[in-house]
Amino acid sequence: VTNANGGIIDDTVITNAGDYIYMVVNGATKFGDMKHFQEQLDAFDGDVTMEYLEDTKQLLAIQGPGAANAVAKLLPDGFDLTNMGFMTGADTTLDGIDGCRITRCGYTGEDGFEIAMPAEHTVSIASKLVEDETVNPTGLGARDSLRLEAGLCLYGNDLDSTTTPTMGALGWTMGGPGSRRRTEGGFIGAEHILTPEGKFKKSSKKRVGIMGMKAPARGHAEIYDATGENLIGEITSGTFSPCLKKPIAMGYVETGNHKNGTEVMIKIRNKMQKAAVTKMPFVESHYYRIPE
């Protein structure tokens, strides 16, 4: 979702629900999102409405190789998970409870699901899930390390209203060269992102992955060129990767310093450490694909 300057208001999950679009926004940005959507609705001369579910629904995420088996135990007989593609969703019952929805998605780089249910049934459905000995409850700290290993952005850290999709390496959300969205534009802020021919406009900085430092580089750590003399960017997210057993980070560097293998220096606790620009994801993703 972009603003008039092409900056990112929010990154959301959108699925086609037939005669309507189902969208999940970030909790931290929901009030600004709703204000933005309402402003667009008020300015639009057409037949469209928005239903904001507010706190009537809650969301649980089940992630990992065993997610499908765990979720299947709550779904009605005959629900076809095998042919449910990544980033698709469906209304259903969960543990016999009406008014639920399941979407094959998540923010860990693995197969998984986000399930929505009436708020009053959240605890009972969560309790039912963890009765499965393969399901372990976890919090946002674990999700944050996994999303970073998968090279995924966190709004407020790696994205904000001044960051365009091209800066954030999110051009794929607008389709490939020659796609309708790229050639027609038409979305808010498109003129700041795309040329009339549908090519990406040049940007002053790029989001990159960084590895090689001996200690984790946290948000706002400064990135310098290989000489250590010229400031070229800053870290936006960093952690010690549980899977790789080494520090990883992402951040923004001036365009021209963003190519894979570019040597850089990171200032960590006032000491310069050698590192290098690295392709993301850091850990191979395993998003679900429907069997052929």
Rounded radius of gyration (Å): 21 Å
pLDDT averaged over residues: 96
SSE string: EEHEHEEEHHHEEEEEE
Total count of helical runs of at least 4 residues:
5
Low-confidence stretches: none
The helix-and-strand class reads: alpha+beta
Descriptive account of the structure:
- With 292 residues, the protein is an alpha+beta fold.
- Helices cover 15% and strands 27% of the residues.
- It contains five helices and twelve strands.
- A six-stranded antiparallel barrel has the order 7-10-9-8-11-12. A four-stranded antiparallel beta sheet has the order 3-6-5-4.
- A hairpin with a 2-residue loop joins β11 (263-268) and β12.
- The chain is globular.
- The model has no long low-confidence stretch (mean pLDDT 96).
Strand and helix map with partners:
Blueprint: E1 13-16, E2 21-24, H1 30-43, E3 57-63, H2 67-72, E4 89-94, E5 97-103, E6 112-118, H3 122-130, H4 140-149, H5 180-184, E7 205-211, E8 222-225, E9 231-241, E10 246-254, E11 263-268, E12 271-278
Antiparallel strand pairs: 1-2, 3-6, 4-5, 5-6, 7-10, 7-12, 8-9, 8-11, 9-10, 11-12
